[in-house]
Amino acid sequence: MVKRFLGLTGLVLLVLGVTWIGGPALAADAPSCGDCHEQSKSFGANPHGRAACDLPGDAACASCHGDGKAHMEAGGDASLIKGLRGADGSETCLTCHDVTTEHTSYRHGVHGVNDTVNCLTCHSVHTPHAKEPKLLAKRQTELCASCHQGPASAMRSKAYVHHLDRGGMTCASCHEPHGRRGEGALKLTRQGEAPCLSCHTEKRGPFVYEHGGPTTGGMTGGCLTCHEPHGSNNPKMLTRSRVDLLCLECHSTLAAGALGSQPPATHNISLPRWRNCTTCHVAVHGSNRSPKLLK
Fold it and tell me: For residue 138, what pLDDT is reported?
């Protein structure tokens, strides 16, 4: 009975903030990451936070940043905590996100993992853009344009362009940001075709009469032979201002090893009426009826 009374008395005194010599001392709260880092309070709504929701206390932070005890005791010394910058930081991300396929590699992709460009160049673990998926740090078009200024400028200033942010089209519609080196980071179709054919399906073929081109697969395999992918001042996003100038790059007696037949003598290309080849050769990408691609 006496022990029970002393126990209750000690509890009341502790609640009132009075130290009772005969009872256990109240331990001070241990320091936490959230004491200094505000982003830790909203980390639970982050995909990484949801994945680590079963980890107690600061264990979720420690899973990427390592033990923070020495960091806290030194008053926040950054050298005593693991950061995610540079190649070493990417290695931390790759402990989970190490994906390598025939066309994709996070570790050896076209965006190299090094001290200049790493995962945090594009992604933000704690403060991503609110409306962008994949924890992107900025809007995708703005993010890509920060490095790829040439294509971004063409899309803004040229007369004929692929309009981004219309109909869900983004840079990643055609490009694989983690693509393997040497492939131009193009996002190929399931058949291994150029991404152009994901939208321009009528150009796919196969056709009975293909339009032969300088690359394997004819025109459907070498869209960039005739078209500018990001933007052009020429209709149809062509690389040349006139159709005949484009066609004569291959269909000419002047070019060594011409890849196509030359215009017949009846075609006097010095006259304007013969300069628009596609007026007659309408099936320029391929035909199932005409060997001369007339229909």
Answer: 92
